[in-house]
C-alpha cells in the first residue's frame, strides 16, 4: 500500500514544535524537536549511543520497569489486566504468544466480544523463535523471550476512546516524565505494520539507536490484497520492558540488565572465564551494524570492535563467540522455564515441538562450551531468579525439572543414532538444507552433529546460519490446531440445512427430557429438520443421539444419528418418509444410550480435572471421545502413568462422585469467562461465539462445553480406568467406563477368570494359588528343557557331517536330520560360520531348507537355484530359507553341491 504522509502529520507534532525530517541514511521520515538531527536515531543509521548518554538517575530492573510502565498508564486511565500464558491456548492458528495484541485475537479484534477493559494496559511475556539463531550474537537486540508492554484502546463506531495524537502524547509523557529522557532525544520514525490480516501506520520510538516502543494504529483489514478500513480501530502499542531496563541501567549488554548477577552465576557454572566488560560494551555499542540476514556483517562487526579497542580480531572473535553462547544459554533456559511453567509438554508436534527444539538447542550449546553441567542446575537458577515475577515457575518447579530430566534422557538416546543416520545420508550426492531439516524433524539430530560425523567420511556439509529459525518458522503456527472435524454430512445436505433458522435446543433446557413434539421445517431424502428437538447432535467428542420419530400417519421411523450444520440440527432417519412442512411430529430419544453418554461425558470432565491435579497443570486435553460403552481422554503428559498413579487417579475421581458435587451449565460473556477462570476453559476447544457455555463441577472443574451432562457427580456411579497407553510422544490416552458400564466391564473380567479357572482345573478363589504353582512348574520345565537343548546341541554339532565340496576349497556342513528346533539350528549356524572362511552350513527337515555361510560367501546363487527348481522362499547375503517339496534330502544336498561348483567356474 502506498503510504500517505498525512497519516503521520499529527496535531500533536504541530502543537509541540516537532519537525518532519528525512533520515540521511535510510531515507525514512521521522519526527523530532531537535533541529540539528539528521538521522532517525535507529539502527543501523545510529549505533547504540544511548550507552554513553548521561541522562537521568534511573536504574530500573525488569520488574521495576514493568511496574513503572503499568503504573504510568493506570494513572492515565488504563485498567491493568493480567497477562495470558505464553502458550496461546485460545488461538486455533498459533502456538505461542508473540505479542500483547494476541491476547485479544481474534475475538476482541474482530468485534465479536468487547475487551475486558477499554482502554487497558498489560505486560505480556512473549516468545518468538524466528530470531533464535541471532540470540547472544547481537548482545540483547534479539531474545527468544521478552515482555511486551502494551496499552490498547478499542475505538468502536459508537465509542471513541483515543487514537494517534493521544497515543503519541502518552508515549512522549512516559519517556520524558517517567524515564526522564530529554524530549529532543526522542524520535518518532514513520513505519507501516501488517500482521494477521490487519494493517496500519505506525511510529517506532527510538532514542540513541535503541527502539523502545512501537505505536501501531490498526485501521485496515487486508482482503484479497485490498486494504479495507476497519470499523473497529485499535491502538496496538508495544513497549520493550527489557529494553527500558537496559536503557536506564546502561549495562554492557541487555543480558546484564535482564539477568543481573545471574550473568556471573552462569559464567561460573558453565566453567567459563568472564569476558571483559569493556569488550562487551563496545560489542553492544556497534551491535546495530549486524544484519542477521547477512552473516558477513558479523565478521565486519568483530573487526570494528577490535579496531576500536586496539585488539586482534581473532581474539575478539573468540571471546565474543564464547560470551554469546553463555548468553544463549541464559536466554534459552528462561524461555524453556516459561514454556514449561505455562503448560507446554515437549513432543514432536505443535507447541511441544518448539519447546523440544529449544531444549535440544540449549543442550547443543552446552556441548559447544564443553560443559557437562546438568541442565536442571541452570533451570533451578532461573526458577529462583524469576519466581516473584513469574510465580508459575515456582508452582510448577517439580514438573519443569522432571520434564527436563526426561528430555535429557531422550537426547542421549538420539545421539546413539547419529552414526546410522549419517551413513544413510552419505549415500546422497548432494546434501541440502531440506535434508538437514528432515533429519532434525524425524530424528531430532542437530545439523552440526551430522556435519561432524560426515566430515569423518570426507563429506562437507553447508549448514545455514539460521537453521533453527528455519525449523521454528515452519512449526510456529498451523492452519487448524487440534482435532479435525469429521464431516458426516454431504455438501448437498449441508447446503439444504443452511436455509433454516437455528433449532431450539430442548436438550439444553432440560437434559433429562426424553420426548417432545415439534414441527417439520424441512425434509430432504432421509434428513429431517425440526423447529426444536431433544436430540443432541454430535459434537465435543459426544456422539449424536438416536431414537424414534413418529409422524401423523402413525409411521414410526428410527433416528440413526444426529448431526448439525451451524446452529441447525439435522436428524438422520433410517429411511425416506413422505411428510409435509409444518406437520407436527413426536420424537423420543434412546434414553438408556443418552444417559450413558451423559455419564461418560461428565466423567471425562472429572478425569481431566483429576489428571491436572495429580500430574500437574501441564496436562491439557488433546482429544476425547464419549460413546455409550466407554470414553477416552487423550492428555498431554511427558511419560506413561505408573500403576500407582492410575489407582490414585481413580480414587480422586470416585471421591468426587461420592461427594455428590453439583454439576451445572452456565453461560458467560467470553472475556468475563476468561478473566474469571483463565484460558483452561478452552480444554475442549475454542468456540467462536461471544457467549460461551461453561460446565461447572462445584469446587472441581470449569470448562467450556456444549455436551449433555448429569446434574450431580453421584449420578456417574463410578469410574474405572480400563486402559492407558502412549499414543504419540507427549500424549497419553486414558480409557475408562462409568455407571453401569463398570459392572459390564467387571462381568467380562469375571467371565475371563472363570474360563482361566476352568482351564487350570480350579476354582476362582483358588486361582491365584494354582496359577503361582503352575508358573513355578513351568519355570522348572523351561530350565530342564534348556539343559536338554544344550545337551542335544552339543550332540548335533558332533554329528554334523563336514565335507569339502569336490573340486573346490569350500567346506559344506550338513546338520543331522533329527535337528528340527529353530533355536538350535540358529545357534549352530552362528557357531559353525563364525570365525571361519569358505563355509556353508545347511539344515533340511520337513521340506524346509535353511542355509547359512561365512561372511566371505553369499547364499544368493544357491537360493536362486532352489527357487528355479520349484522352491518357495528367499534370502540373500549370509542366510536364506526355502521350502521345496518335490525333492528328497539327498537330491537337495547334491543340487547345492553342484551349484557351489558352478558358481566357482
Describe the protein:
This is Alanine--tRNA ligase. GO terms for molecular function: alanine-tRNA ligase activity; aminoacyl-tRNA deacylase activity; ATP binding; tRNA binding; zinc ion binding. One of its GO terms (cellular component) is cytoplasm. Keywords: Aminoacyl-tRNA synthetase, ATP-binding, Coiled coil, Cytoplasm, Ligase, Metal-binding, Nucleotide-binding, Protein biosynthesis, RNA-binding, tRNA-binding, Zinc. Its cofactor is Zn(2+). With 905 residues, the chain is of the alpha+beta class. It has six domains: 246 residues, Bira Bifunctional Protein, Domain 2 (BirA Bifunctional Protein, domain 2, 2-Layer Sandwich), CATH 3.30.930; 154 residues, no CATH class; 99 residues, Elongation Factor Tu (Ef-tu), domain 3, CATH 2.40.30.130; 153 residues, Threonyl-tRNA Synthetase, Chain A, domain 2 (2-Layer Sandwich); 39 residues; 104 residues, Diaminopimelate Epimerase, Chain A, domain 1 (Roll), CATH 3.10.310.40. The protein has 27 helices and 30 strands. The strands form six sheets. It has a nine-stranded mixed sheet. Strands 11-12-16-15-14-17 form a six-stranded antiparallel beta barrel. It is globular, with a radius of gyration of 36 Å.
Could you give a short description of this structure?
The chain is an alpha+beta fold.
Question: Cα distance, first to last residue?
Answer: 80 Å
* Number of domains as seen in the coordinates: 6
CATH level-two architecture of the largest domain: 2-Layer Sandwich
Note the total helix count.
27
* Helical content class: 25-40%
Structural class: alpha+beta
Profile the largest sheet.
9 strands, mixed
Amino acid at each position: 500500500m502506498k503510504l500517505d504522509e498525512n497519516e503521520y502529520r499529527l496535531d500533536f507534532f504541530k502543537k509541540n514544535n516537532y519537525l518532519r525530517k528525512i533520515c540521511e541514511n535510510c531515507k525514512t521520515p521521522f519526527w523530532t524537536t531537535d533541529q540539528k538531527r539528521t538521522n532517525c536515531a535507529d539502527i543501523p543509521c545510529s549505533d547504540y549511543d544511548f550507552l554513553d548518554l548521561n541522562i537521568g538517575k534511573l536504574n530500573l530492573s525488569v520488574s521495576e520497569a514493568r511496574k513503572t510502565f503499568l503504573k504510568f498508564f493506570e494513572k492515565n486511565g488504563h485498567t491493568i489486566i493480567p497477562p495470558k500464558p505464553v502458550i496461546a491456548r485460545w488461538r486455533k492458528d498459533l502456538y505461542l504468544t508473540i505479542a500483547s495484541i494476541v491476547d485479544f485475537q481474534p475475538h476482541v479484534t474482530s468485534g465479536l466480544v468487547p475487551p475486558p477493559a477499554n482502554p487497558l494496559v498489560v505486560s505480556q511475556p512473549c516468545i518468538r523463535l524466528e530470531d533464535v539463531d541471532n540470540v547472544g550474537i547481537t548482545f540483547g537486540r534479539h531474545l527468544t523471550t521478552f515482555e511486551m508492554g502494551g496499552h490498547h484502546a478499542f475505538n468502536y463506531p459508537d465509542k471513541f476512546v483515543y487514537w494517534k495524537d493521544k497515543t503519541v502524547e502518552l508515549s512522549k509523557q512516559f519517556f520524558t516524565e517517567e524515564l526522564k529522557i530529554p524530549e529532543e532525544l526522542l524520535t518518532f520514525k514513520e513505519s507501516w505494520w501488517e500482521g494477521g490480516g490487519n494493517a496500519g501506520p505506525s511510529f517506532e520510538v527510538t532514542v540513541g539507536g535503541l527502539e523502545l516502543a512501537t505505536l501501531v494504529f490498526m485501521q485496515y483489514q487486508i482482503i484479497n490484497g485490498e486494504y479495507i478500513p476497519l470499523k473497529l480501530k485499535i491502538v496496538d502499542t508495544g513497549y520493550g520492558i527489557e529494553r527500558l531496563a537496559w536503557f536506564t541501567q546502561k549495562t554492557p549488554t541487555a543480558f546484564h540488565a535482564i539477568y543481573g548477577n545471574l550473568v556471573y552465576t552462569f559464567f561460573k557454572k558453565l566453567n567459563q572465564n568472564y569476558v571483559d566488560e569493556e569488550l562487551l560494551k563496545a560489542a553492544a555499542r556497534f551491535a546495530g551494524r549486524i544484519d542477521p540476514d547477512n552473516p558477513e556483517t558479523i565478521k565486519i562487526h568483530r573487526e570494528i570492535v577490535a579496531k576500536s579497542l586496539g585488539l586482534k580480531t581473532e581474539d575478539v572473535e573468540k571471546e565474543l563467540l564464547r560470551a554469546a553462547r553463555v548468553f544463549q544459554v541464559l536466554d534459552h533456559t528462561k524461555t524453556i522455564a516459561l514454556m514449561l511453567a505455562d503448560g507446554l509438554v515437549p513432543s514432536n508436534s505443535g507447541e511441544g515441538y518448539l519447546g523440544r527444539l529449544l531444549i535440544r538447542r540449549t543442550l547443543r550449546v552446552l556441548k559447544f562450551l564443553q560443559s557437562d553441567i546438568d541442565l536442571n542446575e541452570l533451570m533451578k537458577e532461573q526458577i529462583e531468579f524469576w519466581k516473584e515475577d513469574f510465580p508459575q515457575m515456582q508452582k510448577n518447579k517439580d514438573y519443569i525439572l522432571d520434564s527436563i530430566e526426561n528430555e535429557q534422557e531422550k537426547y542421549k538416546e538420539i545421539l546413539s543414532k547419529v552414526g546410522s543416520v549419517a551413513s544413510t545420508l552419505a549415500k546422497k550426492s548432494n546434501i541440502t538444507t531440506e535434508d538437514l531439516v528432515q533429519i532434525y524433524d524425524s530424528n531430532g539430530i542437530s545439523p552440526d552433529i551430522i556435519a561432524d560425523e560426515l566430515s569423518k567420511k570426507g563429506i562437507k556439509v553447508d549448514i545455514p546460519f539460521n537453521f533453527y529459525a528455519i525449523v521454528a518458522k515452519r512449526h510456529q503456527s498451523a492452519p487448524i490446531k487440534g482435532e479435525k472435524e469429521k464431516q458426516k454430512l454431504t455438501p448437498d445436505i449441508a447446503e439444504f440445512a443452511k436455509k433454516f433458522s437455528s433449532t431450539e435446543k430442548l436438550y439444553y433446557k432440560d437434559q433429562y427430557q426424553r420426548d417432545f413434539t415439534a414441527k417439520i421445517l424441512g425434509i430432504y431424502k432421509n434428513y429431517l429438520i425440526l423447529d426444536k428437538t431433544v436430540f443432541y447432535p454430535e459434537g465435543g467428542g459426544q456422539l449424536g443421539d438416536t431414537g424414534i420419530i413418529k409422524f401423523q400417519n402413525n409411521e414410526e421411523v428410527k433416528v440413526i444419528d444426529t448431526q448439525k450444520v451451524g446452529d441447525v440440527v439435522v436428524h438422520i432417519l433410517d429411511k425416506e418418509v413422505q411428510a409435509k412442512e409444518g406437520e407436527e411430529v413426536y420424537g423420543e430419544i434412546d434414553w438408556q444410550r443418552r444417559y450413558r453418554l451423559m455419564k461418560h461425558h461428565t466423567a471425562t470432565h472429572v478425569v481431566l480435572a483429576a489428571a491436572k491435579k495429580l500430574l500437574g497443570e501441564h496436562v491439557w486435553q488433546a482429544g476425547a471421545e464419549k460413546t455409550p460403552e466407554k470414553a477416552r481422554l487423550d492428555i498431554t503428559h511427558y511419560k506413561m502413568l505408573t500403576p500407582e498413579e492410575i489407582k490414585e487417579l481413580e480414587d480422586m475421581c470416585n471421591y468426587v462422585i461420592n461427594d455428590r458435587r453439583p454439576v451445572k451449565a452456565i453461560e458467560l460473556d467470553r472475556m468475563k469467562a476468561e478473566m474469571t477462570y483463565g484460558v483452561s476453559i478452552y480444554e475442549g476447544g475454542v468456540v467462536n461465539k461471544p457467549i460461551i457455555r461453561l460446565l461447572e463441577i462445584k469446587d472441581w472443574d470449569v470448562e467450556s462445553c456444549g455436551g449433555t451432562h448429569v446434574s450431580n457427580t453421584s449420578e456417574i456411579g463410578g469410574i474405572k480406568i480400563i486402559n492407558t497407553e502412549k499414543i504419540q510422544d507427549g500424549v497419553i490416552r486414558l480409557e475408562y467406563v462409568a455407571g453401569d458400564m463398570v459392572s459390564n466391564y467387571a462381568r467380562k473380567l469375571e467371565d475371563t477368570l472363570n474360563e482361566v479357572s476352568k482351564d487350570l482345573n480350579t476354582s476362582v478363589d483358588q486361582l491365584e494359588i494354582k496359577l503361582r504353582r503352575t508358573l513355578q512348574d513351568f519355570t522348572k520345565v523351561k530350565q530342564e528343557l534348556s539343559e536338554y537343548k544344550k545337551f542335544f546341541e552339543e550332540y548335533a554339532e558332533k554329528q554334523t557331517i563336514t565335507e569339502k565340496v569336490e573340486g573346490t576349497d569350500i567346506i559344506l556342513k550338513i546338520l543331522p536330520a533329527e535337528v528340527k528346533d529353530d533355536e538350535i539350528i540358529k545357534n549352530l549356524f552362528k557357531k559353525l560360520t563364525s570365525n571361519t572362511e569358505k563355509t556353508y552350513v545347511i539344515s533340511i527337515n520337513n521340506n524346509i531348507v535353511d542355509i547359512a555361510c561365512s561372511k566371505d560367501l553369499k547364499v544368493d546363487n544357491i537360493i536362486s537355484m532352489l527357487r528355479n527348481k520349484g522352491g518357495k522362499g528367499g534370502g540373500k547375503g549370509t542366510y536364506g530359507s526355502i521350502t521345496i517339496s518335490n525333492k528328497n534330502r539327498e537330491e537337495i544336498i547334491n543340487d547345492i553341491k553342484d551349484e557351489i561348483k558352478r558358481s566357482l567356474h
